[in-house]
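Subject: complex prediction, re-run

Hi both,

The earlier run crashed halfway through, so I resubmitted it with identical inputs.
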Amino acid sequence: MTRRSKFQIYLTIVTFSTGFLVATSIETTKLMRTEKMNNQLFQQETQLTDRILSEKEQNRHLENQLIDLQRQVGKVEEAMAARKEEAADILGQLEAARMQAGVVAVEGPGIVVTMQDSQHASTSADITNYIVHEHDVRLVVNELRAAGAEAISINGQRLVSNSSIRCVGPTIIVNGIKSAAPFVVSAIGDPGTLEGALSLPGGVLQSLQDFVQIDVAKHATVQLPAFVGDAKSKHS
Amino acid sequence: MLQKSRKITFILAIISAIIGVMLTVQLRSSLDPVHKESRSIAELRASLQKELEKHKNLLADISKYNQLYYQYETSLSEDESLSVMREELARNRKMAGMVGVEGPGIAISIVDVEFDESIVDEHMSAPVVGGYSIDDEDLRWLVNILFANGAQAVSINGHRLISTTAIRNVGDVIQIDTRTIQPPYEMKALGEPEVLLSALKLEGVEEYFQLSNKHVLAEKRDKLIIPANREERSIRFMKPVKEKGDS
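This time it finished cleanly. Structure:
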């Protein structure tokens, strides 16, 4: 009888470890496969990141080239203006039109409005109340325009005559270019007037302040980039 | 007796094998969870797309300025280069919205729903015609949809919208910059008519305005004329950046 129960105990141990072995080998092959996949993903990721970086570098290069070119054109135009009064007259109009069309980078006094989801957002039951929506951004932009802002950009995207502002999740899409929070609205104009317009009693600042984080800062000079891509048929 | 105990042994063997397998699986899966990284790949693809798009745009801009430079350089007389400059001025004024434009597009009018007496019985409170008014954000929202779907120029009641145009409630009326507009609101949008019309459907514009008892009538036009912006704006604060910026 004792022999028999001993035998049973041995058998238990042996089969137990056999099971263990079988499972381990299966799992290991599976793991190797996922690891291989992960590796592939990782490789893909690094490749993509590399391409993005090189593309960015190239774009920066191109941007500088464009600015240089604009300056060259500007020099030629100025030379012409110096020679002829008529040309000077046209040049004045041309510069204004270029600035209003948003195709040249501009600078001047103005304000910078930074909007961000409220810190309450993660703890609050009703999250939608505490995040920045596209109409909040539009509201601020609209108020700045009404207060006489001459040029506005959002997260480095210059607003032109057919720009749109869209929000998808936590990102904002302006001129078809996506960027993440915080949303920074920069405007050139009389800083006092612009700030005053936002902070009127019952105004934009007051109505938004309770829900989202919004900061307004006056600056002596704000630089706004040019809108890029006016040559092709624009779609924003 | 012998048979029975052999059976027990057999069952015991199977059970312990199963337990062994289960234990291992459990251990393994709790030790290293498999990472999912496909999301970040999608994000990376999107940002690459963005950079490529920008690249294309930059190249287009550069070739445009190159052409302009070339035109200036090769013009034989002062008059010729002056006319090049005038052309450039006209092009920029057009982009700024200071010149009227025409082309295919859609016309939208937002009108009151007609009061239909046959539907109304005494239990239903009749909607006040024109009682629910549209506010500035409604118009801004609609305009934004148009621009987001490729509209190149939009006007509301004949007022062309440009980069500095504000649409806001002043008292009971809506002002576009300094000019007051009255309902019914008529919009014109230059762009691909089919794209714009399907965008209106997709965004539920019709349903949205129905809430304020309004009908949205949108139709395709082969030829649409959108006037120039008439607002006088003097530039007082901004000037072109001459030096290379950090940005």
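The helical segments of chain B are 2-31, 38-74, 78-96, 136-148, 193-202, 205-210.

- K.
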